[in-house]
Hints:
Chain A is an all-alpha fold. Chain A has helices spanning 14-34, 75-88, 105-113, 118-142, 151-161, 172-190, 193-199, 215-220. In chain A, helix 2 (75-88) packs across helix 4 (118-142) and helix 3 (105-113) crosses helix 6.
Amino acid sequence: MENTSPETPQRIDRRAALKWMGAVVAAAAVTDKLLGAPKDPGAKPIEGAGKLIGTDPVLNKTYTPGELWSLTLTPAQRVAAIALIDLILPPDNPATDKLASQLGVQDFIDEWISAPYENCAADKPVITAGLDWIDAEAGRRFHKKFAELDEAQKCQIADDICGKTPVKKEFKPQQAFFNRFRSLAAGGYYTTPQGMKDVGYVGNVPTVDFAGPTPEALKHLGLA
Amino acid sequence: MAIITEKDLQPAYDVIVVGSGAGGGQSAYTLTMNGVKVLMLEAGRNYDPVTETPMFQTPSQMPLRGMSTRQKPFGFADATVDGGWEVPNEPYTQASEDPKTHFKWWRARMLGGRTNHWGRISLRNGPYDFKPYSRDGLGFDWPIGYDDVAPYYDKVEMLVGVYGSNEGLENTPDSPNGTLLPAPKARAGELFVKKHIAKHGLPVIPIHRAVLSTRQDHVNFPARLHPNNPKAQKIIAKAMQERAACFWATDCGRGCSIKANYQSTTVHLPPALATGNLDVLCNAHAREVTVGPDGKANGVIYVDKVTGQERAVKARAVILAASSGETARIMLNSKSNRFPNGIANGSGLVGKYIMDTVGGRLSGYVPAFENLPVHNEEGAGNHVYIPWWLYKEASKLGFARGYHIEFSTGRRMPGMGTGGASPGYGKSYKEEVRQKYGAGIGFSGRGEMIPNKDSFCELDPNTKDKWGIPVLRFHWKWSDHELKQAQHMEQTFHMIIETIGGKPAKMSKTKEEAIEAPGSIIHEVGGAIMGADQAKSVTNQWNQCWEVPNLLLNDGSAFCSNADKNPTLTIMALAWRASDHLIEEMRKGNL
């Protein structure tokens, strides 16, 4: 068997290759659990951590951010986070869908960065510094807070750091912030019922039989 | 009799069963259905999947969206509580500082043990798998063959409920007609892989899993399971009617409140308790098996984890089914004048030849799966798999034995990975997330490890657990067979992903990187192997210790090989067989 590395694809450029790799990594994160054994042993509590999820939590109840440990975003950071979340994840149907912030995505991000686990604690300075920066940058460019900007002004800042087009060297730290913030916001959003509907997930509903793929799905894959 | 507290303990039982998982659950079931009075000791707390399972909870209802932590390594909603590779107050140690020699020991301190979590993949060992030494000169032959175990595979499949199909493939046994439940339809991605890799000779066939795709045949199965035992038939017929068929919605790893999948707690224990012959004592951490003046086992000393007090209970026979590592630990800690190195350890083989499954993995991204028309793809884990297909090529591979392939595709419940890979923001970003969702594929190999003398456990001379009980210290070494096999897995997965037009993730640079860490697959078996020769094994073919015939090892500890087939079904079949034999021996007065 030929051992070709996806790191050096023959026919696609580097940019496409990076996009591919990102998708592969994301796919791995989703399929990991289904495969039976997680590659890493799970998030490690930070030294001297207070209240944790523990080994025997009540499983069949609804938890609210802030219930297990205190939230730590400042009021100003929270306002900026809400504005950025709604910019990243606008509703598909504004008339009927809720805003991502109305679904509490900012509460989840606050829960995450405030959590007594090493990976979460590592995200905290990235997220809080990024939110502070985005308000400061809004002030420098428009003499307002980020949340007070109009859509075009918000986009002007976001476009510089979101990675859709090459990011200038001076914005590299902010690009890292945006990537991480977007991951957390997307994870927070797509795990809500509205987010699941949005992405086209229709499981978690009892059915009598497993119907299998639809004729349309089979056709899509050239199997019909 | 019931789930009891200490004050309700009887002065003596016929049999004490240590452990409540696949081996302990099956042993207690078989014994109590035949009128034997059993006490089951479980080191963890009582656990009831019917009331505790988070069936429909979405990650947005869980702390940190269900993130995996050291205390809940398979994520928040996983059924396992008080378990994982790290268990508070219950350390284990490694003999060497070299991480390559470390064994990760996964335990579940809860009623039902690891059966609450497992993948439910229920493959029979084939005829080759019982005679590996005869085929290639490596490892050990079992003192039994496939034909000895086949009737018990039949019974276990009927009892627990296994879906699948008969394909007539080499060393991949068929079940008698009417034994298996219908296989669910394959998912779109599973069919896509099947179509495209057929040209490479890899068969994609329905997997066997312990999930009720339909209700069990409660009219005919009871008489086939318990001929000439009307009381048992009546009890199991009722228990079967209390289980619902799968509704294809949720993740089996969370447990199943409708009892559609197999957990000891929903399948073995309810009918066993209904006989009135079973007492279950939880939070009872077995320390040692006690021996009478006649050299026979006569009871168990355990620590009540709630009070920290030691207690002794008596019985005519003892079955250890504590998980192979814990069974070895209890035996090594059972020291007496007669057995200074641990009970039934005259051979010195207790703790030796521990095995895990060889694991390898590779994921990929498949553009053909993008924008797949929306439909439900949840429910009951994998529907297909690829059994080992290279029996005829064995001499050319550079490693002995083989592996099967499990793979997962489909539009499954979104998690923290959803959306992370796309650039930008706003409408175009959301569009791209939609396009990519469900386009991932993950392959994992599950292969046979050959037992070796460098992979073993022993008592640590210094470290004790919270209750003062010496803990296990592990030694580990893969042979080149396992390392090369893991590399072969990765290469195969890479080939498959490219064949379906996908983009594989980065491959490992070395074979040492390709293999999953020892203990990761949680198929720990061995440690008290069975054999035909008393000097070279710990138990006989009936899981009875050679030196202490009323001490049985009914978990994976008696395995003398670890076929690529996941061990749980075989643990249950052998536990049933050994328990039948124990009943006969007790009736005859031989014990």
